[in-house]
Fold this sequence. Notes:
By secondary structure, this protein is α/β, with parallel strands linked by helices. It is built from 8 helices and 7 strands, in the order βαβαβααβαβαβααβ. The strands form 2 sheets. The chain has a 5-stranded parallel β-sheet, with helices on both faces.
Amino acid sequence: MDLALLYSGGKDSTLAALLLDSFYDVTLVTGRFGITDDWTHAEAAADRLEYPFDTIDLDLDVASEAVTRMSDDGYPRNGIQRVHEHALERVADLDVDAVADGTRRDDRVPTLSRAQARSLEDRHSVDYLSPLAGLGRHAVDRIVAEALDVETGPSEQIPRGDYEAELRALLAQERDQAAVDAVFPDHEQSYVRGLRE
């Protein structure tokens, strides 16, 4: 069975791929708006892990809508959620049996409700899987420490292959860097260098 997993190159989406690999033919897929080429970091991580990799083009209007919402809200939650839902819709349009992401039990954003997951499945005739949905942050961190070589650091310094980097860039273009700093809290990101030997 073919599965497309939304992939950032970080620890959560990588762990999701490893957990699903026994049951599916996993392709790692990064959504991109074309604002930056940050998605190449996810491609490099996928290559080191020896997974097939692909990209999907996301609608730039969705990015603009998300940036406006984040700027109006003063925080990224609703904008990131909107982009994640859009990316899952686009991945579900691929010729696959299932789609997945690396969302965890403790994530506030992005998440899909049961109703949203069922709707996605019904409208696209795919299964939606979130293999980390039963795992909290500490459990994920312990498993990752055993299995993956990971670099962590501040968001703006860690190479990523997700849409957050592009949303930051678009917000800086449309507003300025001060708007980016006001909207996005300081937090750590991860980037997978490979499997732990």
